[in-house]
Amino acid sequence: MVRHLPGILLYLVHVDSLLAMGVLALLLSALEWVGTLPTELPSLANPAARIVWCVYFYLVARKAAMGKLRLPVPLDFRDLVDALIKPLVAATFATLWYWAVLCAFALSTMDLADFLQRHQAHPLIFLRGQGALGYGLLALGMLYLPIAVVDALVGAPRLWRHLNPLHGLKAVRCVPRAFSIMFSILTMLALIGFTLEALSGRLVELLPIPLAAPVIRHLMRLWVPLAQARLLGGFVFHNRPFLDPVVERE
Questions:
Q1: Which of 65, 85, 90, 154 is most open to solvent, judged by the fewest CB atoms within 10 Å of its CB?
Q2: Range of the domain at 78
Q3: Which pTM was predicted?
């Protein structure tokens, strides 16, 4: 896994990757700008931005799990049901437990409108301000979400199997050394991401141009999660011979 890391990082500075990240950063910035308007739209715009980000993260991981290097393109989804809808349903089921716990915790401390407006439905921003319990949920997410994404990428005979939070754990424990290495790299990238998050927040304060600052901020934020998505997909691709039999026995 370590020997593939330089290729993953180089893949993110390819011109196609940079263009895709630029478009995604512009789209996220536009949605967040809509979220600041004095209308009913903010209640939809901020969650939409988070959904767009999560969907794209998963599609990058899924394409990497097929052994393909480039970011997703429209031709990858000609068969809409099998190529897009079913994988996204599997990913939603696999990660549902964590999002349910996160939303329940958010609703115990504030109402939903406040969560969307003050924190823009951004888990990292919210959890870092909630003390020890918030950091505990953040650590749980860092451990659980990679396993859930791997579970969704490997697939299962029946989609409802992904609702079992232990389903992915049964698969990754067959390759403990490879998973521990991959998880260590994910954690290292997450620490880099926290630093970039802080720098991007400072950048917004310094740049007086309304749209340029959030676009650049998202470009700084996107690099780490897309590297993580590529890493998760690569883990599944290189370990599929060990992961598939476990799923088939379920």
A1: 85
A2: 2-249
A3: 0.81
CA distance linking residue 146 with residue 185, whole number of Å: 12
Evaluate the CA torsion angle 47, 191, 218, 144 in order and state its sign.
negative
Alpha-carbon distance 224 to 221, whole Å?
Answer: 7
Number of separate domains in the chain:
1
* Identity of residue 82: D
What one-character-per-residue DSSP string does 126-149 give?
HHTTSHHHHHHHHHHHHHHHHHHH
pLDDT (tens digit, 9 = 90+) per residue, 208-226? 666 777 788 888 878 888 8
237-250 pLDDT, tens digit per residue, is 988 877 765 555 55
250 vs 245: CA distance, rounded Å: 9
- Which residues, 6+ apart, have CB-to-CB distance to 171 below 8 Å? 150, 151, 154, 243, 246, 247
- Assess contact for 80 and 55: CB atoms under 8 A: no
Spell 110-127 as b/e; 16+ CB within 10 A means b.
eeeeebbbebbbbbbebb
Distance CA 234, CA 228 (A): 10
Q: Is the pLDDT of residue 1 over 60?
A: no
Region of 120 on the Ramachandran plot (φ > 0 left; ψ -120 to 50 alpha; else beta): left
Helix H or strand E segment including 40? none
